[in-house]
Amino acid sequence: MGYTSRWYQIPDNLQADWLGILVSIKAPATRGGVITAVEGNRWVVTLAGIGRDYPPTDEAGFLDFARSLHTPIIYEAIKDAQANSPLYAYKRTENSWRHYEKLSRLPESLVILGDAVCAFNPVYGQGMTTAAIGALTLSECLAKQLSHNADGNLVGLSRTFQKQLSKTIVIPWLMATGEDFRFSTTEGGRPNFMTRLMQRYIDQVLLLSSQSTHIHKAFLEVMHLLKPPSALFHISIFRQVLQRIIKQLTTR
Ligand SMILES: Cc1cc2nc3c(=O)[nH]c(=O)nc-3n(C[C@H](O)[C@H](O)[C@H](O)COP(=O)(O)OP(=O)(O)OC[C@H]3O[C@@H](n4cnc5c(N)ncnc54)[C@H](O)[C@@H]3O)c2cc1C
Q1: Cβ atoms 111, 157 nearer than 8 A
Q2: Dihedral angle at the C-alpha atoms of 127, 129, 134, 137, nearest 10 degrees?
Q3: Which atom of ligand 1 lies closest to the CA of 115?
Q4: Atom of ligand 1 nearest to the CA of 127
Q5: Per-residue pLDDT reduced to its tens digit, 68-118
Q6: Residues framing ligand 1 (Cβ under 6 A)
Q7: Domain edges within the chain
Q8: Is 3 helix (H, G, I), strand (E, B) or coil?
Q9: Which of 120, 69, 90, 94 is nearest to 186 (CA)?
């Protein structure tokens, strides 16, 4: 995936019934975009493409890409708006996880955390939270080590920490890669049965989110790593997902 962003002045005479726009990329479509209002009466406009279908970084190409989305709403908004920044492109969106915890030899007095261990496709917004959880994990490992070693001996800490850290990465990793696996162009393996099942389940949760603040909040809490994914299987949500699936099956 790659995306290109640009700032625009919000037109004074704007006649719109929206504050922001998200044209989501739903497989098999490969293109989407976002308009977000920010300080200084400006929009940040981001266009994104999957499978190396990158949005161009020249003015005409950017507008053409906006026009090609499955709704022209972003194009209509920006075609006459005043741009007030260059076009910025970003393409390093692969997920990568380096398994230091599996090394047979690891130097003492060295810990690795944050993006140096695991970097995510940034569109899911998990990198900073996961890095912060890594820092908290280091704090816990240090406290435990020192409680057993009053003399301050840190031998063994590196390995213990890398192992603990890897456990905190599993969930955000599955969430990010599970979403990226929706696209057939994603490289690095194929989604397994569980991933495909989760994708179907999340589709229903997302559809229900547009009608239920309770489900929307639960979804955001899981995405922001405040709650485990099991929160989306709470009986109050599971029942509604099941009802939708049964309805779909019986109306076929
Ligand atoms: C385009 C983009 C958008 C993102 N959006 C989000 C988002 O919306 N939400 C979110 O949670 N996360 C987001 N992330 C991810 C987030 O930025 C990272 O996960 C987070 O910054 C990782 O923190 P870190 O401390 O591990 O690494 P970094 O923040 O990269 O810090 C590493 C630091 O080390 C310095 N450094 C590197 N080499 C050396 C050296 N040899 N000597 C000295 N210093 C060195 C670098 O200059 C840098 O300051 C985004 C990332 C990108 C690239």
Answers
A1: yes
A2: -160
A3: 26
A4: 19
A5: 999 999 999 999 999 999 999 999 899 999 999 999 999 999 999 999 999
A6: 90, 114-116, 122, 125-129, 131
A7: 2-90, 97-172, 193-250
A8: strand
A9: 94
Fold of 2-90: Alpha-Beta Plaits (3.30.70)
Helix, strand, coil shares, percent, the chain, to 5: 45, 15, 40
Report CA(98)–ligand 1 centroid distance (Å): 16
pLDDT reported for residue 251 = 81
Q: What is the token pair recorded at 114?
A: 């944050």
| In the chain, % of residues over pLDDT 90 | 78
Mutate to test the pocket of ligand 1, among 44, 115, 120 (most ligand atoms within 8 A of CB): 115
CA distance 115 to 158: 17
Closest atom of ligand 1 relative to the 113 alpha carbon? 26
Vertex 56, ends 50 and 62: CA angle to 5°?
105
